[in-house]
Amino acid sequence: MKQFCIIALLMIFSIKISAQTASGIKIERDIKTPLLHKFDPMTVPDVWINIASDETEEMPLPSGIDEKLRKEVDAARMQKLKNNITNRKIINASPTPQSDFNPSLIKGTDVNPGSGTPNDNHIAVANDGKFIGVMNTVIRIFNDTGKPIKTWSLENFIIPNKKINPFTPLTRTFDPRVVYDPYEDRFIVVYMHGDYDKTSFIVVGFSSPGDPLKPWNVYKIPGNPLLDSAWSDYPIVAHNKEDLFFTLNILGNGTTWEEGFREAIIWQLRKEDGYKGDTMHQNFFHNIKYENKPVRSICAIQNGPMPNGTDNYFVSVRPIDKQNDSVFLHRITNTQKSGIAKIEMTLLKAPEIYGFPSSALQPDTGMRFKLRTNDCRVLCGIRSGNQIQFMQNSMNFKTLQAHLMHSTIYNANSATPIIQSKLYTDDTLDFGYPALAYASMNENDPSVIITSVYSSLHHFPGVGMLYRNRYGEYSNYIKLKKGSSVINYTYIKKDEQRWGDYEGIQAKYNEPGVFYCVGSYGRQNDMYAYISRIKINDKFTKQPIESVRVFPIPSNDGILNIEVSAFQNAIYHGEIYNVSAQSISRSANHNKIDFAVEAGTHLYQLHTHNLAPGIYQIHILNNSNEIILTKKIQIQ
User: Fold this and answer.
1) Which of 198, 335, 514, 515 is the least buried, fewest Cβ under 10 Å from its Cβ?
2) Which of 479, 480, 486, 236 has its CA nearest to residue 360?
3) Beta-bridge partner residues of 180
């Protein structure tokens, strides 16, 4: 009933303004790219630490940055702080009370900074516990204990036989992303090269099944696909069962970030080709416009909880506007292999206004050190069925702090989608660069786990997380790693420090409730990364059955009643054991309990005529054969 009421309210207060098929979009179908080479990680030297120095190069800013607007909103915030000096509380000055659904940190791993700034963190974890962390120009492979077992430069992927040719000299690699395919037990890495039309391309690498230390199939996707004076920037990656998608911004050579924006594009790659090492088949979507203006900074939405589906959604907003409520919902309707994939676009009106965020503050009496939040583009999104959740940096217009907008689109595949938005705020902390994942493997459960970075005048930059349950209630903000210094790269202006352009989080698909995330924190005036293994403590996720009542006890009429109260729809199994811990159910299949439970309270009857009088136990198991409840019964 609680969930029904929430959805009903959303339908009343959320607004949609128009929907249309994106007829002006151009689709280049079945572009073919040959396999570049097979990269063997074991043939390159380990690069364990790359210490940043004054000569270290700054990574390209995400396209679309509006410097004039950034200075304007920062100046307004500084004026507000000077005119409103208050001693706001410091988070965690006293122990934070733990609610029933606060997530918890199981284990953390410090990661040394790579060359260049910001970190551009991303992460993916395999079912066997190995995980990959990418940062700037470096890729690291960790075993299931968190120990790094191989680290190398991203340049190694694109140097066949350790030679540069047929490439132009490598100028810079940046913006790495990594995803894991649980169906094929493979990793996929995507990253950028070059910030000029003649050096721009995208590297896509597909690992061998089961072991990222074995050879990868590597492809080079053009960064200047329209063959003009432009280059590609800032990939956001998603995948479903058949295809890999990544979105990019196309920028003109040698122009400012705002003036240089040309358009946002989408690539659709056939994963099967990458796994086999065959010629890669791709679709390329461009000329994505609304009212003849190009749509900026499109975010690829990850299907979940598992990467299923044959279509894929994308979301974008007006990222460099001071205030706006427009949300664009895009959908690619079919697989690359189908040959009939097309794209649709719907314009929605969000019920809460988002806007260009102010810079985040750091502990500094002169308020000189500021951290870029870039703009309010959509940074991450996930989809389950017809529901999409996405997040973006945004201005808090009441306090002028940098906070997080969390939005949900309902009925995404209908003619009338509904959108609801909520600004996640704090009275002290600034937030930036959220990433999110579904917290449950149940497709009907919209609870999510969120990670972000934080900072304030009272807190050095750190990384934290929070949980939002299926009723829209947020947990406390849990600090995973507290910073110990400001971030201050001497080759960047004090009020333009880079904080990170994105962070990463992924569920461990075969271990419900466990997630791996990565974020940045301040240390020695530098920006280090912290990888966390975290656990959901929501009883809904940990314990899908709230209670089981068995009666009558003792049972003397040949029937045992089992009353089950469940939080969610699921299939469960039950087994009966005798006092010697032997399963009676295995030798008598009619005593084995297999039942589909719907959310709510239900009564089941078990016939016990074939059981001898005595004491028994009923074990209730989930689909992973884990015992979630045990009840003692007596048969007379």
Assistant:
1) 198
2) 486
3) 187
Domain end position, chosen among 508, 540, 572: 540
Contacts of 57 (CB under 8 A, 6+ apart): 115, 116, 172
- Give the list of residues 6+ apart from residue 82 with CB closer than 8 angstroms, or none: none
- Is 193 within 8 Å of 248 (Cβ atoms)? no
Distance CA 281, CA 272 (A): 9
What single DSSP character describes residue 207? P
DSSP state of 37: E
CA distance linking residue 350 with residue 344, whole number of Å: 19
Whether the Cβ atoms of residue 213 and residue 40 lie closer than 8 Å to each other: no
**Residues 522 and 552 grouped into a single domain:** no
Amino acid at 79: Q
- H or E element, residue 39: strand 37-39
Instruction: Tell me whether strands 627-635 and 600-607 are parallel, antiparallel or unpaired.
Output: unpaired
- For 162, which DSSP code? G
Q: Tell me the pLDDT band of 313, cut-offs 50, 70 and 90.
A: very high
Count of domains in the chain?
Answer: 2
pLDDT tens profile 164-190: 444 444 557 899 999 999 999 999 999
Nearest to 381 by CA among 275, 528, 229, 236: 236
- Does residue 566 share a domain with residue 527? no
Written as one string, the DSSP assignment of 263-282 is EEEEEEEEHHHHHHTPPEEE
What is the biggest distance separating any 2 CA atoms in the chain, rounded to whole angstroms? 87
Give the domain-ending residue among 509, 525, 540.
540
In angstroms, the CA 560 to CA 598 distance is 20
Q: Which residue has the tokens 């309990």?
A: 593
Q: What's the N-to-C CA distance of the chain in angstroms?
A: 40
pLDDT tens sequence across 521-542: 999 999 999 999 999 877 655 5
Cα 517 off chain centre by: 9
The CATH number of residue 609's host domain is 2.60.40.10
One domain for residues 315 and 284: yes
Instruction: Please report the pLDDT score of residue 572 as a whole number.
Output: 73
Q: Within 10 A of 4 (CB to CB), how many other CB atoms are there?
A: 8
Question: Range of 186's domain?
Answer: 2-540
Window from 13-27, 242-256, 601-615 with minimum mean pLDDT: 13-27
- Answer whether residue 288 shows pLDDT above 90: yes
The enclosing domain of 37 has a CATH number of: 2.120.10.10
Choose among 28, 115, 107: nearest CA to 489: 115
Distance CA(60)–CA(374), nearest Å, equals 12
Given pLDDT bands bounded at 50, 70 and 90, which one contains residue 611?
A: confident
With bands split at pLDDT 50, 70 and 90, how would you rate the model's confidence at 153?
Answer: confident
Considering only CA atoms, which of 633, 447, 400, 414 is closest in space to residue 541?
A: 447
Residue type, 159: I
Tokens of 119: 């970190």
Report pLDDT digits (tens) over 551-589: 777 776 777 777 777 766 666 777 777 766 666 654 444
* CA 428/CA 458 separation, integer angstroms: 8
Tokens of 428: 């002290």
Dump the DSSP string for 101-120. T--EEEEEEEE---SSBS--
